[in-house]
Specification:
The chain is an alpha/beta fold. The protein contains 8 helices and 11 strands. It has a single domain, classed as Spore Coat Polysaccharide Biosynthesis Protein SpsA, Chain A. The strands form 3 sheets. The protein has a 7-stranded mixed sheet with strand order 5-4-1-6-10-7-11, with helices on both faces. The chain has a two-stranded antiparallel sheet with strand order 2-3. It is globular.
Length: 263
């Protein structure tokens, strides 16, 4: 049973350009299998579960292999559009590449931006993120989770200024104690995303553009930010190395091995 179509439809951008150097494999990271199906395909399954249209897949490292696998095995392949991120300059840069591919779809009002390495996301969860942005008439809604060990994740800070994401590197000791994390899934008002992406600045020693920085920029300009907290924090699990891949595999098995569209 799927979650049904969104009205009006919501576009999506799947960030699947990363090299995954910590995976210790020549296989492009999005193609590593979980439960016998490539991670990026499970993310696309979840999007198919509530009829996201169009779906832009941003490719980069191993682009030809990723595109070939997606075109061969994705559901609703006719809704897919591919965009290329020539150099891996961070999630903000990847979102920019994906957004450019939506220029030919001016009817898109909302756009989900989500990672291609979060294979446990459910269609019903993505629907909630979109519905909350619309309900709150916010510039963006984002998915959060409460976890026992938030180390390495951006923390969700709620104060008089509203809601912002503070990365681990910038966290004060008190912020580091917060157990609510950013799951890396966003639903943006398309027009607001177009406004804020050019404002992103290079961050960290890798000189990358971080998409979470857009949340702070929008909040500081007085825009509304909404959040949706996961009931099942395992949905926020991402994969950056072999240990996390094994953890996702175990979590999927504990779920009963269901594919992503199931709610």
């Amino acid at each position: 049973m799927t979650s049904g179509p969104m009205t009006p439809p919501c576009a999506a951008i799947v960030l699947a350009a990363g090299a995954g150097t910590r995976m210790g494999s020549d296989l492009p990271k999005p193609l590593h299998p979980i439960g016998g199906r490539a991670m990026v395909l499970r993310v696309l399954d979840a999007l198919a579960g509530f009829d996201a249209d169009p779906v832009v897949v941003v490719v980069g490292h191993g682009a030809a292999r990723v595109r070939e696998a997606v075109e061969a095995e994705a559901h609703q392949a006719d809704r897919l559009v591919f965009a290329t991120q020539p150099a891996q300059l961070g999630t903000g840069d990847a979102a920019r590449a994906g957004l450019a591919a939506l220029d030919s779809h001016p009817e898109a009002i909302d756009v989900l931006v989500l990672p291609g390495d979060a294979p446990l996301l459910r269609a019903a969860t993505l629907r909630r993120v979109v519905a909350e942005r619309r309900r709150a008439a916010a510039a963006v809604s984002l998915l959060t989770a409460h976890v026992s060990d938030p180390t390495g994740y951006g923390r969700i800070v709620r104060d008089s200024a509203g809601l912002t994401v503070v990365e681990q590197r910038d966290a004060t000791p008190s912020v580091a104690q917060i157990d609510e994390i950013n799951a890396g899934v966003y639903c943006f008002d398309v027009a607001k995303l177009r406004q804020v992406l050019p404002q992103l600045r290079l961050a960290n020693t890798a000189s990358e553009y971080y998409l979470p920085d857009a949340i702070g920029l929008l909040a500081r300009s007085g825009e509304g930010i909404a959040a949706v907290a996961l009931d099942d924090a395992s949905e926020a699990m991402g994969v950056n190395d072999a240990n996390q891949l094994a953890a996702c595999e175990a979590a999927l098995a504990a779920r009963g091995g269901r594919s992503a569209p199931m709610s």
